[in-house]
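A brief tutorial aside. Many learners find it easier to grasp structure tokens once they have seen a single protein encoded end to end. The record that follows does exactly this for C-type lectin domain-containing protein. Read the sequence first, then the structure, and try to relate runs of similar tokens to stretches of the chain.
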Amino acid sequence: VCGVSPYGPHRYHFVKQKKSWTEAQSYCRQTYTDLATINNMDEMKKLNEALKGKGGDFVWIGLNRGNTGRWQWSLADGSFYSVGNSYQKWYSGEPNNAGGNEFCIAMKQEDGTWFDDECGIICTFVCFDYIFINDKKTWSEAQSYCREHHTDLASVRNPTESQLIINATINNNHFWIGLFNDSWKWSDQSSSSFRYWNSTQPDNNNLTKCAAVSVKDQGQWEDIRCEEQHPFICHEELILIQENLSWKGALRYCRENHVDLVSVHSEEIQLWVKDVAQNASTDHVWLGLRHTCTQGFWFWTSGFSVCYDNWAPGNGAEGEDCSPVERTGAVQARGDQKWVSLPENQTLNFIC
């Protein structure tokens, strides 16, 4: 069977079987990479497209609540923050989490200091790039507004940005910025701070500890009971292993640690493989492509037939020389990045 998959940092797979969150996590880890992680609004829009017409109420994603929270910025762009960026400007005695329910951060106009407050309180707010919105909303509503009309709620990385934000505001005691505290964690250990909660969510109680996409609510998220049975979204990643192994060693490594050696059964996946292979430390990178001498054809270890191919001239012939070892397929790490036939005992980097 020949398949086509979309090209991107994640490939999302909708699974219509109904499972609990933990069962869904196990299924995704066995079959793909993990339950879906969503890194930004673009990925969320793609996921929503994938869910159109699927019906039902909720679909599991890979977010669940742990025991310890951490401060993070609403804009989930790792390249935007320098390593060790730790600028903070708390008002005296803050954050104090008064009442155990203060998870969102407001900034005082008079001196730029921060304090934690209940996320459901309504305040004015500042979006990127230093755009003051003189309209009072809850923190989640402010976040949604900024994402729809600008980029996101404002981050404050240094004193200069703090002053620019203060300069943008008009006669306001305090206003929301993009800092929040939560204890929600992604199943694949991603550090993504992207969240897309419904404005009344999460409940953050001890009963509802798993996140699901609300199919009927523009794809916004709700926290629900983990034991509920719902369809789910897995994601798949291509992982370059910069370790030199024989083809059989690479196959064993991928199957023990991930899913399988990569199968390139469409042009979209070839584009994805080309991006990943460029970072290899060897000139060629193993694929899940193998030749059988007894039957005289090439096949993918995942079970796909070779419908799409990208062989370099002189490679991929049906009548491969089978002595002294079986031939296996690799992709050129650079240049034209075509496929080549190599003896299986060569040692190369590989893609799972």
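Self-check: The chain has three domains: 10-129, 131-235, 240-351. If you spotted this yourself, you are ready for the next section.
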